[in-house]
């Protein structure tokens, strides 16, 4: 039994690191029906058309439509499964050129948001029973500002928090700039496992959009049980896993760096809220 468990664990670790293997293309010569270029393989390297295109018929149209839908389903299922089982390796492979076999980050982010919206529409009673969790306690933050600046600050901070809470589905979107700034500040000199490169802003965006899509999919899975407000904890845990798998750092370093990213993100957001509140006070006093 111990040997079987060990073999299963090693098989899972191999899958985590290597992922799905792409089969080799055939070596039959084709003339592309679209651009006329000659090539070996299944698809034209110039325009991407299939090497063998059959005459259009009802049967061929049905097969083409089915394959098109199945490909999306397969890519979506593969991306979702690997985001849960090997998120850092998936994102790293996507950044380093393995892009055809996965759903792009923005697309899967929007699809997961759409599915969450449909679920909330279909189960409105569950939505009423669930309270959205704030990233930090707005009321105590407003009281702290009031103690340092003045009574009017409470009004502005509460107004801002009300606006933010009225758009809970967009939480990941308005946190994204702060996440990117914090991530780049902490990881700007850290090398990827698959290359000697350090992350740039676009790669940080890909990482965070995939992680936000993962958080949204977790919310979909937990929503019927009323636990979708616990996704912040899952986001933190998965970020530790992602950063360990993507970069040349151990588990302990991935843990404290993730905590540092979360802390800096909160600080950046608080500074922005304070700046906007002070600007509104100055504007009102001036006019």
Determine Rg (CA atoms, Å).
24 Å
Structural class: mainly alpha
The coarse silhouette is globular
The share of residues in extended strands comes to under 5%
Helix and strand succession?
HEEHHHHHHHHHH
- Helical coverage, percent range: 55-70%
Number of helices: 11
Strand order of the largest sheet: 1-2
**How many strand elements?**
2
Catalogue the unreliable spans.
Answer: 125-136
How far apart lie the N and C ends?
Answer: 77 Å
Largest sheet: 2 strands, antiparallel
Mean pLDDT rating: 76
How would you characterize the overall build of this protein?
- A hairpin with a 6-residue loop joins β1 and β2 (38-40).
- α2 crosses α3, α3 packs antiparallel against α9 (201-222) and α3 packs across α10.
- The protein is built from 11 helices and 2 strands; from the N terminus they run αββαααααααααα.
- 68% of the residues lie in helices and 2% in strands.
- With 287 residues, the chain is an all-alpha fold.
- The chain has helices at residues 2-18, 58-85, 87-95, 105-122, 124-129, 138-148, 152-165, 171-187, 201-222, 231-246, 251-286, and strands at 29-31, 38-40.
- The model is unreliable at 125-136 (pLDDT under 50).
- It has a two-stranded antiparallel sheet.
